[in-house]
Amino acid sequence: MLPDEKIKNSKELEFSIFCIEHVAAKLNVDAKRVYQTFTASGILNGYIVPEYEILHTQSREYIVNDLLDVMEERGVKV
Fold first, then answer.
1. Angle at the Cα of 14 (from 11 to 20), degrees rounded to 5?
2. Which residues fall within 8 angstroms of residue 37, CB to CB, at 6 or more apart?
3. What are the φ and ψ backbone dihedral angles of 70, each rounded to 5 degrees?
4. Which of 19, 30, 42, 65 lies 20 to 30 angstroms, CA to CA, from 51?
């Protein structure tokens, strides 16, 4: 498990919002629910932020599918 990291700059913030909005669209749920789920489960500060440097270079489809895989591995449901 990755250490929790806080968002450090506007690029990480924008990327986090991108992730939340696109996962919400894929699951056809409200982005606020995805944000709350990612925050409560540690996916936001324990996966998205620490892996920003690698993840942000991937395609939207890859990122969304990767996050869905992380949710499944952790038993996280929206």
1. 140
2. 43, 71, 76, 77, 78
3. -60, -45
4. 30
Tokens of 40: 């409560």
Confidence of residue 2 (pLDDT cuts 50, 70, 90): low
pLDDT digits (tens, 9 = 90+) for 6-52: 999 999 999 999 999 999 999 999 999 999 999 999 999 999 999 99
Nearest to 10 by CA among 18, 2, 21: 18
Domain boundaries, the chain: 10-74
Comparing CA positions, the residue from 1, 2, 37 lying closest to residue 19 is 37
DSSP H stretches of helix in 6-78: 10-27, 31-41, 43, 52-55, 60-74
